[in-house]
Amino acid sequence: QVQLVESGGGLVQAGGSLRLSCAVSGGTFNRYAMGWFRQAPGKEREFVAVISWTGANTYYADSVKGRFIISRDNAKNTMALQMNSLKPEDTAVYYCAGRSSILLGTSPDRYDYWGQGTQVTVSS
Questions:
Q1: Which end of the chain is more exposed for a tag (fewer CB within 10 A), N or C?
Q2: Could you tell me where the beta strands, DSSP code E, fall in the chain?
Q3: What 3-state DSSP class applies to 100?
Q4: Burial (Cβ within 10 Å: 0-12, 13-18, ≥19) of residue 49
Q5: Which of 88, 75, 67 is nearest to 19 (CA)?
């Protein structure tokens, strides 16, 4: 059974940085496209970033492009999201997700595995 566990969330002031991590176990990590999603109170879960099997290809939501960086370490079965220049509107629960595909997906429906989420709160 594939398990994803996020860590690294917390409270930060606007303009600050946080680094989220996702540890994956129980599956063939280097065959999964991996993504980050977030969900703010009262809103739908939205796409943040995705990275391909090899890490060579990435794609970001326009709202985070230039501020967030997604990366992965297939030797350690981990993925990370470096979040810089954080804004109050980045406040949400952040989820890591995996899909057994070579294709980069931006829809939550395309993902097979999910973590439990980690809270990120950005104060103004």
A1: N
A2: 3-7, 10-13, 18-25, 33-39, 46-51, 58-60, 68-73, 78-83, 92-99, 113-114, 118-123
A3: coil
A4: buried
A5: 67
Q: Cα–Cα distances in Å, from 90 out to 16, 61, 99, 105, 106?
A: 11, 12, 24, 21, 18
Nearest one of 15, 22, 36 to 106, comparing CA atoms: 36
**pLDDT per residue as tens digits for the range 11-42:** 999 999 999 999 999 888 778 899 999 999 99
Which one, of 19, 24, 25, lies nearest residue 7 by Cα? Answer: 19
Report pLDDT digits (tens) over 52-73: 999 999 999 999 999 999 999 9
- d(CA 69, CA 74) in angstroms, rounded, equals 16
Pair of tokens at residue 97:
């997700």
